[in-house]
Amino acid sequence: WRMDPEVPLVVPEVNPDDVDWHKGIIANPNCSTIQMVVALKPLHDAAKIKRVIVSTYQAVSGTGQKAIAELEKQVRQLFNMQDPEATVYPYQIAFNCLPQIDVFTDGDYTFEEIKMIKETNKIMGDDSIKVTATTVRVPVFYGHSESVNIETEKKLTAKDARVILSQAPGVTVYDNPSEKIYPMPIHAAGEDDVFVGRIREDNTIDNGLNLWIVSDNIRKGAALNAVQIAELLIARDKVGVPA
C-alpha cells in the first residue's frame, strides 16, 4: 500500500497531517526511509533539499529472524574452520557486505533502493527532490546506518544543521568528532530516536552537507512508527473509516 495514491504513507515527525485523509488504511514506510526523512525534514523546511545521495548499511534484522540466526550461525562456523552455509542471503553475510537488498529492477536498482527514492518524495510531499540510493546489507544484528549527502537551495553550515537537528522531534544529535563521538548501531539498538552525527559541509558544491544517520530498524524503522501513527490517529480523533 505504500505507493498507492489513495493511502497515506506516514512518519509522524514528518507528515502527521496526512493521517487526516486516510480511507481506512495507513501505510508504514520502509525502515531505511523512515530514519532518513526524520533527519531530512527539518533541514528541508529550513533550506529546501534539491538532491539526496544515500548509501545504507543495513542490519540483518531487517530481513527477519532467520537472517539473525544465519549471521550468528555463520560466525560460529567460520570460527570453527567450517564453510558457512548461506540460505537466507545469496552469499555469506558474516564478515561480508552484500550490495543487494531485495530483487533487482529496471536500471539495475534494487527494489529497496527504488522504495527509498519513491517513498522519500511521497512522505516529504515534494516530488522535486531528486534521490538516488545504494542499499547494502552488513553483518550487524540491529540498527541501520546511512551515509547521506544533501544539496540544498539555501546555504546551511554544519553549525546551522546541528542547531536545527538538535531541536527536531525524534532526533538526537551525537556529533563531536574530536572526541570520537558519532552514532553507531550499538548506540541506537533499543532506542527510539534517530541519531545524527558526522555533520559536515560538502566542499565540492556550494550548498552541500554530509550526514551519518543511525537508528534501530526494528523500533523506529517498524514497530515504534506504527504505534506513533496509532497514537496520532487517536489524538486527532481519526480512528475508523471516514463516512
Descriptive report:
α5 links the parallel β4 (171-173) and β5. With 243 residues, this protein is an alpha/beta fold. It has a six-stranded mixed sheet with strand order 2-1-3-6-5-4. The chain has helices at residues 31-47, 65-79, 111-124, 158-166, 185-188, 219-235, and strands spanning 49-58, 130-137, 144-152, 171-173, 194-201, 208-215.
At the fourth level of CATH, the homologous superfamily of the domain at 28-59 and 97-232 is Dihydrodipicolinate Reductase, domain 2
N- to C-terminal distance: 21 Å
- H/E element sequence: HEHHEEHEHEEH
Task: State the low-pLDDT regions, or none.
Answer: none
Outline of the structure:
With 243 residues, this protein is of the alpha/beta class. It has a domain at 28-59 and 97-232: Dihydrodipicolinate Reductase, domain 2 (2-Layer Sandwich).
Strand and helix layout:
Layout: H1 31-47, E1 49-58, H2 65-79, H3 111-124, E2 130-137, E3 144-152, H4 158-166, E4 171-173, H5 185-188, E5 194-201, E6 208-215, H6 219-235
Helix pairs in contact: 1-3, 1-6
Short key terms for the protein model shown above:
six-stranded mixed beta sheet, single chain, 243 residues, 6 helices, alpha/beta
